[in-house]
Write a structure and sequence with these properties.
The chain has 5 helices and 5 strands. By secondary structure, it is an alpha/beta fold.
């Protein structure tokens, strides 16, 4: 089973987190594109890049993940969004879900946690 042929937008400003998450995703045959902040992610999506799933860090410069998620949803883009947070405050998670995120995971991201969350939102091939 694999996610072969699927494309992920990873929105993450922290280099170490981006490397760790990307390595998991690429191991599952996912194509990974990276944005360094929410504003860059919104621009990439506006430039008509098609993604099967978006992994969105909440805390970033220029535009945070909650604002970026809200902007993406304003454009009626229904691509599943998983927010990634290092903070377990309920208010941030609720704000992200209210902005249009489909699910969330916590940092440090474990391979098992990431796989199960991605698999809920992205169909796998046999």
């Amino acid at each position: 089973m694999s996610f072969s042929g699927k494309t992920i937008l990873l929105v993450e400003d922290d280099m170490v987190s981006a490397i760790v998450i990307s390595s998991f995703l690429e191991e599952w045959n996912l194509s990974v594109h990276r944005a360094h902040n929410g504003a860059e992610a919104v621009r990439m999506i506006q430039e008509d890049m098609r993604f099967d799933l978006i992994l969105m860090d909440i805390s970033m410069p220029l535009m945070d993940g909650i604002q970026a998620t809200a902007e993406i949803r304003k454009k009626e883009i229904r691509t599943p969004i998983i927010v990634v947070t290092g903070d377990s405050r309920d208010a941030d998670i609720l704000a992200a879900l209210s902005a249009g995120a489909n699910d969330y995971i916590f940092k440090p991201v474990s391979e098992k946690q990431l796989f199960h969350t991605v698999a809920k939102l992205l169909p796998m091939e046999s």
